[in-house]
Amino acid sequence: MIKLIVAIVIVIFVVYMVNRWLDWSKKRLEEMSSRGSGGNSIESQKTSAELSVVQKRYLSWNSSYNCEVVGESHYQRSLLTIAGAKEEESKSLEVIAELQHVPANRYDPNAQAVYIEGKQVGHLSQRDAHALIREKGKLHLNSHVVILVKAKIIGGWKNSRNEGSFGVVLDMPPMKDIAKVISSVSFEDSDQKRAKSIPLNRDQKRFFDYMGIKRDESINSLNVDQYIADKKIEIRSSEDRDLKEKLMTYQKRERVILDLLEDWRDRDNGVIFLYDEIKMPSELQVLKTLEELESEAISWDEIKSNNEMFYNKLLEKYPKLKK
Predict the structure, then answer these.
(1) Phi and psi of 35, rounded to 5°?
(2) Which of 63, 73, 189, 207 has the most other CB atoms within 10 Å of its CB?
(3) Are residue 186 and residue 225 in the same domain, yes or no?
């Protein structure tokens, strides 16, 4: 009996010592591993920090915020943290977004995740993501390059009737213009590149042409909208009645153009009764048709109130638009 007890005690002691040795060995290995990789880890973090400065690129456009982020519904909690509690009015919070390529995405190796304040809030649409990858490739920018863009968090209202989700829109240039405005320095530098390389758009040129105002060399795509706004104020406060009348006519004209183009873009509003008979015209065809009506001394108020007259003239001028 005594021998049995002694044997049991010895077995327990041996097991105890073996376990202690295993624990010590495990801790020793972990310490060695930690020491062995510790220097590399610090160096790696340092390298990543250094690279993050070098590998950031800035894109700035015209504050139109017409690039919509998708998939925000999965990141409402993150957006709530960033934007704050929902209120009766929709949010319009200006922020900076980072576009990060996610080549390991199992659904799409071209995926571009969108981050704000370190939190993912969505991603680019597949079409935009693929186009951005293509443009980055042309610029020899690898997948580690992070694109910074100005963004807005919108929506996120809550009242007694309903509640809205948060959304994100980006101030992105058209993909074809990225190479002209991308900067490794700052948003301001990107703005200056846009001012030098992007021409005025058709609407902006129309103001100068219609009003007979000569464009100064200092006017560029960066400051033209402010210039036009200031010029309109100047004309309204001037004593030149003819110039004031011309501005009023121009503004009526622009409203008609905008309304007609919006009618074509909004196929669900029921305003246009000839959709089944007319192919969609180009903006230039719309403008030329309106100019012809104007040359026939038809007022802009009459054009605006009589869509049928416009469409008849459009088909007369461009018969190939008839289906």
Answers:
(1) -65, -40
(2) 207
(3) no
In a domain? residue 249 = yes
User: Cα angle vertex 202, ends 200, 203, to 5°?
Assistant: 95
Tell me how far apart the alpha carbons of residues 259 and 58 are, in angstroms, rounded to a whole number. Answer: 35
Helix 307-317 / helix 241-265 crossing angle, nearest 10 deg: 80
Tens digit of pLDDT for each residue in 23-38?
Answer: 555 455 444 433 333 3
- Print the domain residue range for 305: 202-321
The H or E element containing residue 259 is: helix 241-265
Crossing angle of helices 224-236 and 202-211, in 10° steps, is: 30
Q: How far apart are CA 257 and CA 263, in angstroms?
A: 10
Question: Among residues 236, 287, 295, which one has the least CA distance to residue 257?
Answer: 287
- 100 and 159 share one domain: yes
Tokens of 14: 């041996």
Separation of first and last alpha carbons in the chain: 109
CB 167 within 8 A of CB 153: yes
- Does this model's pTM top 0.70? My answer is no
